[in-house]
Amino acid sequence: MVYKTDELHIYEKKVLKAFESLGFSLKPEKIAKKQKMDIKAVMSAAGSLESKNLVKIHRKTDYLIRLNDEGLKYAKEGLPERRLLNYLLEKKSIKMKDLFRESPFEKKDINIGIGWLKKKNCIKIKKGVLEVTKKCEKFIDKDFEDEKLLKELLKKEEIWYSSLTKDLKKGYELLKNRGLLDIKEKTTHVLEITEEGKKLLDEGLEIIEEATQVTHEDLKSGRWKRLKYRPYDIFVEYPKIYPGKTHPLRDIIEEIRKIFISMGFKESRGPIVESAFWNFDSLFQPQDHAAREMQDTFYLKNPKICDLPDEKLVKKVKDVHEHGGSTGSEGWGYKWDISIAKKPVLRTHTTCISARFLFENKPPVKMFSIGRVFRRETITYKHLPEFHQVEGIIASKDVTFRDLLGTLREFYKKLGFEVRFRPAYFPYTYLSTECEIYLPEKGSWIELGGAGMFRPEVLEPLGIKTPVAAFGLGIERLAMIKLGIDDIRMLYRSNIEWLRKNPLVKGIKLS
Ligand code: DAH
């Protein structure tokens, strides 16, 4: 491909131009200096010039050599074999035994010294007697190859491998194998202009500053007409940007909140640490109910007990449990124990928020709440010990079970799901139902929550005279389906990859 000069970026032109005056083969640092460019800009321009076959980048690997701590010690004190050799020359010959006994060296250094002197053909050992060889004589006043490099390095501190003489290269191998060097690999570059690049230079390269933006001044002065604009390259690689965003589970919670607000519900809250009274007793759940067992509920050591609401309410709840109060029901027929009701628990459902709300607010009301609930579940792909529920009530004199079904159908429809209802049982509702939604991809239905009309045994102690339609729905399972994940734990793992690629969930419009 032939390039026209005006297709080049100004930096590419500047780099090419440098070859005109400095020669055909250049170090990038030299170009940077000459053209007053950043070295990074030179290298990136060189990269694109290379892809256009106008420049060739030669990469050369070199090693910067230094002594490590041990190497430095030997450079200063002398190698163990040198010190041993000097000693041996004095003694002419010595028995191995005596060497260890008499010489001033440490045992370790003697061993190293003997090893290397043998390798360097400087000693022989006959019948336990050490002798310096003839061959070694030339090393009496001459350095071994490794000693030469050791001395050079002591003097210069660091040396490029490429600058070593043949001798020193041998020394390098020895010192490297003895582990006395600190070696750093470095890549250096040389840029060479290609024949095509030269041709382009011959045609003449004009360096005109290109405008990357048009300023107010340019427009006012009319300069914009004369400016040279660099064409946009829409194929250029760009770095991916990951904007900060809310967690997808938060988005879904927000979406649910908006739906209930749009349907005329008002939001309420309640505490996470709740008394068994509000979590169970006020909901006509008998005190020996299986859900209260330790394996299902988290009981707390601290606080030891919870305060209960006013005595009248507590008494009414007790009566209802024991014999049905004035509801006409028989109650559960057991002795209600206030100390059980005072136990603090991590709420196991958000239904306790509805009970509290009904005690404090008079119908007609439409209320929803969203919150975390806690159950002693073993963690699996579809179970968590801590999850979210959305709870709601409609309390009014004419509300019916059909209104409840219609409301839930409408809610799920707004979220994009089709819902169906199955008969169910909860101690606090009659009629009761469980909602299931349809998963078209799986071709099956899954259960998402419960609903029903609060029983008189719940309403009477709270002083509510109208019917109350109530529901409590799980959120995490909905989120799993909406986000297309098959492991609920994904929602609580900070898997940044997954979070990044997850699109922002579009909020629903308030109607
Ligand atoms: N509390 C129930 C649960 O956690 C769900 C539920 C059922 C809530 C019926 C209600 C209701 O308000 O009326 O499984």
From TrEMBL:
* Reactions mediated catalytically: tRNA(Phe) + L-phenylalanine + ATP = L-phenylalanyl-tRNA(Phe) + AMP + diphosphate + H(+)
Class of this enzyme: ligase
Describe how the cofactor binds.
Answer: Binds 2 magnesium ions per tetramer.
> What residue stretches are annotated with the Aminoacyl-transfer RNA synthetases class-II family profile domain?
252-503
Q: Where in the cell is it found?
A: Cytoplasm
Which cofactors does this protein require? Mg(2+)
Q: EC number(s) per UniProt?
A: 6.1.1.20
Question: What is the superkingdom listed in this entry's lineage?
Answer: Archaea
Q: Which GO terms describe its cellular component?
A: cytoplasm
> So where does L-phenylalanine get bound?
351, 389-391, 428, 454
- InterPro entries linked: aa-tRNA-synth_II, aa-tRNA-synth_II/BPL/LPL, Phe-tRNA-synth_IIc_asu, Phe_tRNA_ligase_alpha_bac/arc, Phenylalanyl-tRNA_Synthase
Q: Which GO terms describe its molecular function?
A: ATP binding; magnesium ion binding; phenylalanine-tRNA ligase activity; tRNA binding
Q: Name one GO biological process term.
A: phenylalanyl-tRNA aminoacylation
Protein keywords: Aminoacyl-tRNA synthetase, ATP-binding, Cytoplasm, Ligase, Magnesium, Metal-binding, Nucleotide-binding, Protein biosynthesis
Q: Which family does it belong to?
A: Belongs to the class-II aminoacyl-tRNA synthetase family. Phe-tRNA synthetase alpha subunit type 2 subfamily.
* HAMAP family on file: Phe_tRNA_synth_alpha2
Q: How does it assemble?
A: Tetramer of two alpha and two beta subunits.
Name of the protein in question: Phenylalanine--tRNA ligase alpha subunit
Species, as recorded: Methanothermus fervidus (strain ATCC 43054 / DSM 2088 / JCM 10308 / V24 S)
Q: Identify the taxonomic lineage of the organism of origin.
A: Archaea, Methanobacteriati, Methanobacteriota, Methanomada group, Methanobacteria
Per the record, the gene is pheS
